[in-house]
C-alpha cells in the first residue's frame, strides 16, 4: 500500500489547526488537515452564542494561565488581535466590540469558519474530514498517520485536537494521548471557565436560579468584576466562569455583592433614610430575591434606625466578602475550555515544536495555556497556530 506524502499533517481542524494549515499552505507547504468530525471548526460555530468572540484587543500574556506564564508571550506578540482583524476585514466580515475589548461578528460565526477554509483552499491545503485517525507512528524521521485504512506521511505532525471540554461535540484527549506516547509531559487537566456547583449548605442560593448581579468574584489575589448568575446547580455568569479557572477544590471563593458601595454606605443610608427597612436598603443595590436571601442569611432585620452602626458595618463587610464553598464544578460537559494540557516546558515558544521529538508540534487548547473568557482562547489558537504554521 503506498502512502501519500505531505510536508506536514495537522490533526484537528479547529481554530488552531485551521490557522496552522492556512499559514503553512500559503508558504507553499503541502499540508493535510485532518478531523474526525465531518466539518471543520465546530466549536467556532457555537462560540460567542453563534457570533464568535474571535479575539480580545486587550490580549496580553498575563491573561493566560499556564505553569509557565511567560510561554505564550512570544507567539502572542508575533500574531496579534490586529493581525487577525486584518484578516477579518479583508474578508469583509462585519464585527463589533461588545464589552471589555471582546470582538464579535455582527452576523454569524460561520463567517469565520468560511474565511479560514477559504484561506486554506488558497494555500492548497488537502482535507481529510469525517474519519477517525486509527494510528500515529514515527520512524525514520517521518510521521505515519492512518486514516480510514490509508497511510499518510510527513516529516512534521501538528497536534491541534483541542481539549476535553464538551465531549458530546467530539472533544477527545487525543493530543494528550499522542503527546504521552512520544514521552512529552502533560500538566494535569481540569475543566475551566466552568460553572460552580453548590452543596446543601448553600442550597438557598440555588433557589435564586436566573437571578444575576454585578459582583467582584475573588479567589486568592485574583479578582474579576463582571456579572454573576445563580443557577439551579450553583453559580455561573462571566465573573464565576473567570474565577473558576483559578479555583482549587475545597477552597472558598469570595464575592463582593456591593462593588460600588463606599465603606460606610449602610451607615449613610441609616442617616439618610432612618425609617427604611434593612432589607429595602439592600434591595436598592441588589436584585430583590438575592437581597432577601442575603438578609435572611445575615439574620438582621428591622428599621435602619433601630440597628447599631457596628451591626451595619459588620453586615456590609460580610456582603463585600461573602464566602461561597463550591463542592465542585459542572465538569467538562459544561466547561468552555480545558486548563492544563501538553506541558509548555517541552515545547519551543517560537515554533511550538517538542524539543525532544523533532517535527512534532502542539498548538491551541491542547497545550497548557488557558485564556480568560472573552476572545482570549481564540487569540491563543490563532497565535500558536500561526507560530507552528510558519515553522512546519
Ligand atoms: P478546537 O476544539 O477548536 O478544535 C479541535 C478539533 O480537533 C475539533 O475540530 C475536533 O473535532 C478535532 N478532534 C478532536 N479529537 C480528535 C481526534 N481524536 N481525531 C481527529 N480530530 C479530533 N473562545 C473564545 O476565544 N471566544 C469564544 O467566543 C468562545 N466561545 C466558546 C463557546 C463554547 C460553548 C465553548 C465550548 C468554547 C468556547 N471558546 C471560546 C473556547 C474555544 O472554542 C477554544 O479555546 C478553541 O476552539 C480551541 O481551539 P483548538 O483549535 O485548540 O481546539
UniProtKB/TrEMBL annotation:
<feature type="domain" description="RsdA/BaiN/AoA(So)-like insert">
    <location>
        <begin position="190"/>
        <end position="337"/>
    </location>
</feature>
<dbReference type="Pfam" id="PF22780">
    <property type="entry name" value="HI0933_like_1st"/>
</dbReference>
<dbReference type="InterPro" id="IPR055178">
    <property type="entry name" value="RsdA/BaiN/AoA(So)-like_dom"/>
</dbReference>
<dbReference type="InterPro" id="IPR057661">
    <property type="entry name" value="RsdA/BaiN/AoA(So)_Rossmann"/>
</dbReference>
<keyword id="KW-0285">Flavoprotein</keyword>
<dbReference type="InterPro" id="IPR004792">
    <property type="entry name" value="BaiN-like"/>
</dbReference>
<keyword id="KW-0274">FAD</keyword>
<dbReference type="Pfam" id="PF03486">
    <property type="entry name" value="HI0933_like"/>
</dbReference>
<dbReference type="InterPro" id="IPR023166">
    <property type="entry name" value="BaiN-like_dom_sf"/>
</dbReference>
<feature type="domain" description="RsdA/BaiN/AoA(So)-like Rossmann fold-like">
    <location>
        <begin position="7"/>
        <end position="390"/>
    </location>
</feature>
<dbReference type="InterPro" id="IPR036188">
    <property type="entry name" value="FAD/NAD-bd_sf"/>
</dbReference>
<protein>
    <recommendedName>
        <fullName>NAD(P)/FAD-dependent oxidoreductase</fullName>
    </recommendedName>
</protein>
Amino acid at each position: 500500500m503506498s502512502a501519500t506524502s505531505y510536508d506536514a499533517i495537522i490533526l484537528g481542524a479547529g481554530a488552531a489547526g485551521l490557522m496552522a494549515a492556512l499559514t503553512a499552505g500559503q508558504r507553499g507547504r503541502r499540508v493535510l488537515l485532518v478531523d474526525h468530525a465531518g466539518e471543520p471548526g465546530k466549536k467556532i460555530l457555537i462560540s460567542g452564542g453563534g457570533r464568535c468572540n474571535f479575539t480580545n484587543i486587550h490580549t496580553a500574556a498575563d491573561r493566560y494561565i499556564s505553569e509557565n506564564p511567560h510561554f505564550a508571550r512570544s507567539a502572542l506578540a508575533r500574531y496579534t488581535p490586529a493581525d487577525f482583524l486584518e484578516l477579518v476585514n479583508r474578508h469583509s466580515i462585519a464585527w463589533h466590540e461588545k464589552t471589555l475589548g471582546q470582538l464579535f461578528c455582527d452576523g454569524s460565526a460561520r463567517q469565520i469558519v468560511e474565511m479560514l477554509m477559504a484561506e486554506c483552499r488558497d494555500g492548497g491545503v488537502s482535507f481529510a474530514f469525517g474519519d477517525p485517525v486509527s494510528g500515529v507512528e514515527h520512524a525514520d524521521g517521518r510521521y505515519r498517520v492512518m486514516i480510514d485504512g490509508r497511510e499518510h506521511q510527513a516529516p512534521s505532525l501538528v497536534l491541534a485536537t483541542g481539549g476535553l471540554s464538551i465531549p458530546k461535540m467530539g472533544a477527545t484527549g487525543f493530543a494528550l494521548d499522542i503527546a504521552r506516547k512520544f514521552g512529552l509531559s502533560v500538566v494535569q487537566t481540569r475543566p475551566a471557565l466552568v460553572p460552580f456547583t453548590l452543596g446543601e449548605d448553600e442550597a438557598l442560593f440555588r433557589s435564586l436560579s436566573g437571578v444575576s448581579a454585578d459582583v467582584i468574584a475573588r479567589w486568592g489575589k485574583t479578582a474579576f468584576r463582571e456579572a454573576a448568575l445563580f443557577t439551579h446547580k450553583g453559580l455561573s455568569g462571566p465573573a464565576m466562569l473567570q474565577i473558576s479557572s483559578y479555583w482549587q477544590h475545597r477552597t472558598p471563593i469570595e464575592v463582593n455583592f456591593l462593588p460600588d458601595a463606599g465603606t460606610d454606605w449602610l451607615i449613610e443610608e441609616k442617616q439618610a433614610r432612618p425609617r427604611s427597612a434593612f432589607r429595602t436598603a439592600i434591595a436598592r443595590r441588589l436584585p430583590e430575591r438575592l437581597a432577601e436571601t442575603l438578609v435572611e442569611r445575615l439574620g438582621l432585620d428591622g428599621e435602619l434606625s433601630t440597628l447599631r452602626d457596628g451591626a451595619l458595618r459588620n453586615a456590609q463587610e460580610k456582603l463585600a466578602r461573602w464566602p461561597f464553598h463550591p463542592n465542585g464544578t459542572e465538569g467538562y460537559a459544561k466547561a468552555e475550555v480545558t486548563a492544563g494540557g501538553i506541558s509548555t516546558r517541552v515545547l519551543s515558544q517560537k515554533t511550538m515544536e517538542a524539543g525532544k521529538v523533532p517535527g512534532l508540534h502542539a498548538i491551541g487548547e491542547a497545550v497548557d495555556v488557558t485564556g480568560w473568557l472573552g476572545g482570549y482562547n481564540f487569540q491563543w489558537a490563532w497565535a500558536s497556530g500561526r507560530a507552528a504554521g510558519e515553522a512546519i
